[in-house]
Amino acid sequence: MAKNDVSSAYRQLKSKNIKTRKRALRTIKDHKKKVKALAK
User: Fold this and answer.
1) 3-state SS class at 21
2) What's the pLDDT tens digit per position in 7-38?
3) What local confidence, expressed as pLDDT, does residue 6 receive?
């Protein structure tokens, strides 16, 4: 399995592969949700 961090996810959004893009989007959304929860 590839690295699962935010910077990799943003780079993977440019991929032609739909599964890769969806996986990257899920990673980014989870990260934003976590950051938002920590800010409260």
Assistant:
1) helix
2) 999 999 999 999 999 999 999 999 999 999 99
3) 93
Residue 9's contacts (CB-CB under 8 Å, 6 or more residues apart) are 23, 24, 25, 27, 28, 31
Distance from C-alpha of 32 to C-alpha of 14, rounded to nearest angstrom: 19
* 26 Cα distance to chain centroid: 5
CA–CA separation, 14 and 28 (whole Å): 14
- Cα(24)–Cα(34) distance, integer angstroms: 15
Q: For tokens 């739909």, name the residue.
A: 18
